[in-house]
Amino acid sequence: MASRAPQRPNNASPQGKICQFKLVLLGESAVGKSSLVLRFVKGQFHEYQESTIGAAFLTQTVCLQDTTVKFEIWDTAGQERYHSLAPMYYRGAQAAIVVYDITNQDTFARAKTWVKELQRQASPNIVIALAGNKSDLSNKRMVDHDEAAAYSDENGLLFMETSAKTAMHVNDIFLAIAEKLPKNDAGGTAANRPTSGVDITQGGGSNPQGGCCGRSQ
Predict the structure, then answer these.
(1) Cα–Cα–Cα angle for 32, 38, 44, nearest 5°?
(2) From start to end residue, where is composition biased (Gly residues) (predicted)?
């Protein structure tokens, strides 16, 4: 059954608290990281997406019951030559989405490597989600859904299969991350509190670990 594209999540309510979190996307080249971000931020999909060079930065908000969560999103390049730059982007991140292509087993193996690296080197309480992208190509599936779900359970990851093309579960995975992020200590901005979001209802700036503060592009 075709999935109806959900409403874009940028209709932030002025009510309640506004929290800001740094989120990084990691994964092999051509798994659809940039397409997921483009779908989430702009509600668009381009059949032929140019490869990211270094990293791209965008912002988007999602509304929870009493909190508006602003994501500062770093979309990293998947090519091996950019791997050494990745720690610069996931350092201080409160959330990460590790993306693989369900039609390519090698990208799933690479995703597991990224998860291990995040568990070893990123913030201790980082929220990690695993996204099996290109679910619209299920007839070419090489990675079993249950296998990825079991791996995610074993490693404490959020998991969804997504499709940037049809928009299936794209907003849902960001919303699930927003729900899981700690917002009760959202005023924390000190560098020694990397898992705290920044409460910007009082005019605070971006997370100092977040690199910069930008507007939606």
Answers:
(1) 110
(2) 202-217
Single-letter residue type at 83: H
Output the DSSP codes for 147-169. Answer: HHHHHHHHHT-EEEE--TTT-TT
Count of CB atoms situated within 10 Å of the CB of 11: 10
Share the mean pLDDT of the chain: 80
Tens digits of residue pLDDT in 166-197: 999 999 999 999 999 987 654 333 333 333 34
pTM over the 0.90 mark: no
Strands (E) in the chain, as ranges, are: 17-27, 55-63, 67-76, 95-101, 127-133, 158-161, 198-199
Residue 194's alpha-carbon distances to 6, 21, 124, in angstroms, are: 31, 10, 9
Find where tokens 């994964």 sit: 27
- C-alpha 193/C-alpha 186 separation (Å) is 10
Q: Rounded to an integer, what distance in angstroms lies between the CA atom of residue 13 and that of residue 3?
A: 26
